[in-house]
Specification:
nine-stranded mixed sheet; 9 strands; lyase activity; lyase; metal-binding; HMGL
Length: 282
């Protein structure tokens, strides 16, 4: 079963002009009708760091969740953010960005990797106590531009640490578009075979022209959890390449269907969401 995770939070967070709260809620309400497994809808982080997401709690209050089977995921960067998110029973998943790169971990959460791992363990304990599931993103999972050490073996060490904490979902994140089909395949096969109790996902930033072989490599390696953002909005500001944005969900759906996989999305509602996205992200 393919799980599609739609990421309006990732698409919105880097935009300079503030998107009105009502518009955010209207867009996410439309996404809730499409049939995605999960909506990465907002984040509980410092409003100074990510001003676009300062209204996440208010957006949540405007969502109509009763007719939707989609689950909600909120990104957090520290224990305080996790505690804020845990107040809302509507949220199913908390997502934490853990980096394989020491430099990027400092830039992204103002923590060392050692401190971030300690934070992950504390948040995991909170999630277990409150009946939530922690999704850990391994950013720079396919390499980094900072000269920090990287290897598939290093990634496996991170996975082993997370497994010992009881983490059940890990998403490999290609923050700057460096993943190759061969690296995707090897990373998934090694970890999926060694840690069968963990669900591994893929959060790509990629040039659209080279996306299809990457998704197909992940599928062949057994990946069934994919993140995307309609029209490919968002991505990493450090990439300095406007083509290395989020995977466009419509491209992802097309590749999956071409390879014989059912996505379970409602095409009519999906079309409406794409129209609305063009207005939201004009």
């Amino acid at each position: 079963m393919i799980k599609l995770i739609e990421c309006p939070r990732d698409a919105m967070q880097g935009r300079e002009e503030f998107i009105d709260t009502a518009i955010k809620a209207a867009y996410i309400n439309q996404l809730l009708q499409v049939g995605f497994d999960t909506i990465d809808f907002g984040s509980f982080v410092s409003p100074k760091a990510i001003p676009q997401m300062r209204d996440t709690a208010e957006v949540l209050s405007l969502l109509d969740l009763y007719k939707s089977k989609s689950k909600l995921l909120a990104i957090i960067a520290n224990v305080r953010g996790a505690e804020d998110a845990l107040h809302f029973e509507e949220i199913d998943y908390l997502g934490f960005p853990l980096s394989v790169s020491e430099t990027f971990q400092q830039r992204n959460t103002n923590k060392s990797i050692a401190e971030a791992l300690e934070t992950v363990e504390n948040i995991q304990n909170l999630c277990e106590t409150h009946g939530k599931t922690l999704v850990t993103y391994l950013s720079m999972g396919f390499g980094n531009p900072y000269g920090d050490s990287y290897s598939p073996e290093l990634v496996a060490e991170f996975v082993e640490n997370l497994d010992e904490m009881g983490i059940k979902i890990i998403s490999f994140a290609d923050t700057i578009g460096t993943a190759t089909p061969d690296l995707i395949k090897s990373l998934y096969e090694v970890n999926a075979q060694s840690f069968t109790q963990i669900e591994f996902g893929l959060h790509l930033h990629s040039n659209p022209a080279v996306l299809s072989p990457k998704i197909e490599a992940a599928l062949k390696a057994g990946c069934r959890r994919f993140d995307g953002a309609i029209l490919g909005f968002g991505g990493c500001p450090m990439a300095k390449d406007e083509l290395v944005g989020n995977v466009a969900t419509e491209s992802l759906v097309s590749i999956l269907e071409k390879n014989g996989y059912e996505t379970g999305i409602d095409k009519t509602e999906f079309s409406e969401a794409r129209k609305l996205a063009q207005v939201v992200f004009h």
